[in-house]
Every structure is written in structure tokens, then in C-alpha cells.
Design a protein that fits this description.
Layout lengths: L9 H10 L6 H28 L27
Length: about 80
């Protein structure tokens, strides 16, 4: 795993330490998850903007509204 050195202002670091104290090794996990969440939000926003600028047309879109057409290939679930 690569390491990244990052600087935080005092108020931000105090807030992080309240939530995920460094002594319990939670700070790094918290920061990693926060970065992953931020990346996901950014990727989702970009995809949303792309579809807003060029939406699918009814002719180009796959027909996901007819599940009986593709249900036969789906694995069986919740068999008890």
C-alpha cells in the first residue's frame, strides 16, 4: 500500500481525532474511507452530468423494464 502525506488545519485534525483517534489506529481507516467516498461521489456526479448532457434515447436504451425476457438467465435466489 502506498503512503500519502497530507496536512490538515488544526480544527480539521481535532475533528478527525474526535471521530477516529490515531491511538486506536482508526484515523487512517477513516481517512481512507473518506477519500473512497469522495471519489465515488465525484464519479457519480460526472456520470450524472454526462447523462444530463446526452441522455439515452428510447431507441438506444436497453429494455430493462421487461424482466421476463432476461429472468430465465438469472441465478435462482433465496432458495430455502
Amino acid at each position: 500500500m502506498s503512503q500519502v502525506l497530507s496536512d490538515f488545519d488544526d480544527a480539521t485534525l481535532r475533528a478527525v481525532d474526535r471521530i477516529a483517534p490515531a491511538a486506536k489506529r482508526k484515523r487512517a481507516d477513516f481517512i481512507r474511507q473518506a477519500v473512497k467516498d469522495a471519489i465515488f461521489r465525484e464519479e457519480t456526479a460526472r456520470m450524472r452530468e454526462t447523462y444530463r448532457l446526452q441522455p439515452d434515447s428510447a431507441e438506444d436504451a436497453d429494455s430493462w423494464d421487461l424482466p421476463k425476457e432476461w429472468d430465465g438467465d438469472a441465478p435462482e435466489r433465496n432458495k430455502a
